[in-house]
Description:
alpha/beta
Amino acid sequence: MSDITNVLLVGDMTDAPWHPLEPAKQELSGILGEDFLITSTEDYNHFTALDRKQFPLCISYTDCWNRDLTLQQTAGLIQYVAGGGGLLVIHNGISVQRSYELIHMIGAKFTGHPPYQSLDYYRSADNHPLLEGVEDFSMEEEPYMFDFDPFTKKTAFLEYEFEGNRYPAAWEQAYGLGKVIYLQPGHHAPSFKADAYRRLVLNSARWLSASS
């Protein structure tokens, strides 16, 4: 990529019960490097008039488990993606899904997680471009569980193993003219240290912004 891509990173600093934005922002800045310029905010009203020409990529790292987006914020985010924007949802960023419209757009609903623990992650989609340079890896993480929306066609490209079973840890799907990627790791700063995961985040940002 020769041009700098503007990225809007939305999260919570003053009202983050579990996942404050600043540590994730620092890690993402290091991962995305000089190809991306991150603007971070905890003002969800940026969703209301989000412009994909200004921000081809939006990253959700919200920690809003106990409060809803307004109708205007919800509509703005949906219009952004449906109109061709790229949305990268990392770990707790799925907390925006407190309405059925956003569950449908992201493709799944978070249902809970067993305790933080060591997890093994496995590639689950051969030759998928998002997995270029990404090998299987392990890390300490929260094993998020989901109910999946049956009405959206999605591709799960990463799985984690828990108690002998494998569960989706990352997926991508089209929504209107835009695309959405969900990545399950990201509980805190150490979650972003594994080389394979850093490459996966970078691949995701490039894929989404190129599509946008």
